[in-house]
Amino acid sequence: MPPAMTPSAQAPPQEAPRQVKSEAYEGGVEAPGMSAPDEKEIGERHEQDLAEKYGDWEDEAAQARLERLAEQLLPMVTRDDVDYSFALLDTELAFASACPNGTVFFTRGLLAALAEDRHLLFFGAHELTHTERRHYATRQARFEEVRRQVGFTRTPEERQMLELAALAATRHQEEYEADAGAVDMLGRLGWQAEVAAQALQLLEDAYRHVSPNALSHNPLDLSSHPPFRERVARLGQGPPDPLALVHQLRRHFA
Q1: In Å, how far are 116, 190, 218, 233 from 206, measured between CA atoms?
Q2: β-strand 103-107 against 21-25: which pairing, if any?
Q3: Residue 1 neighbours by CB under 8 Å, 6+ apart
Q4: For residue 166, is pLDDT > 50?
Q5: Domain spans of the chain, in order of start
Q6: pLDDT value, residue 28
Q7: What's the pTM value of the predicted model, to 2 decimals?
Q8: Taking phi first (over 0 means left), then psi (-120 to 50 degrees means alpha), and beta for anything else, what does residue 238 get?
Q9: 112: alpha, beta or left, given left = phi > 0 and alpha = psi -120 to 50?
Q10: How far apart are CA 236 and CA 188, in angstroms?
């Protein structure tokens, strides 16, 4: 299993996926993955854990915003084995979180930070892309592939650092792919990529106000999310080489 790493506050931590069998995932690669029933079961546990941790937020105006989001975004999803739904969490922390069973949570803090629906659309599309591409279910396989390509290490300490980098590279790649998927969905709704950049900037501003210690500015950071500025810079370019962070760290610690 991938080694543990410090989670970013941009999303609540998730348990590591179980390796259960080999099946195809994005790109047609055959690799250890997770069965759809297991994916759904773990998603239901995530949904319950988040609801218990933060509590449901009952607000008619907020619920109406989610309904408008669903009307625009859900016609674009392609997985017929997932029942997608949007729900609200009662916390000032600004984040959205996709559970592998199809539930997407939005927090009170996120809706407060994003007054315009077009910016909220970006994060809804981002989270839907995570589930559409089965990022949680394929994380172990992706990590193993990146780790395999890391190659020779001189010391156990270097090996440990590079394994952490391989996991970070895997998680960062998921975020870049979700951003790219969100930009594509927004484009189909008639919005330009700058809406995504604005949404990310607004979320960074919210973090600076509510939880500044959670912000990362170092592209070599081993958190689950790349820095906001790196994500904005990648909009329109697509995801980078997943080994880029590993190669950077190898040079950094050489």
Answers
A1: 14, 26, 19, 19
A2: unpaired
A3: 16, 19, 140
A4: yes
A5: 21-252
A6: 32
A7: 0.82
A8: left
A9: alpha
A10: 14
Q: Which residue from 131, 12, 122, 6 is spatially nearest to 81, judged by alpha carbons?
A: 131
Where do runs of H (alpha helix) occur along the chain? 36-54, 60-73, 108-113, 117-132, 135-150, 156-188, 194-210, 228-234, 244-252
C-alpha span between 173 and 90 (Å, rounded)? 29
93 Cβ neighbours under 8 A, 6+ residues apart = 9, 107, 109, 210, 211
Per residue in 59-90, pLDDT tens? Answer: 999 999 999 999 999 999 999 999 999 999 99
CA distances from 43 to 129, 131, 133, 243 (A): 15, 10, 14, 28
* Unique residue bearing structure tokens 């179980």: 18
Q: Which two tokens stand for residue 19?
A: 């390796």
pLDDT at 25 over 90: no
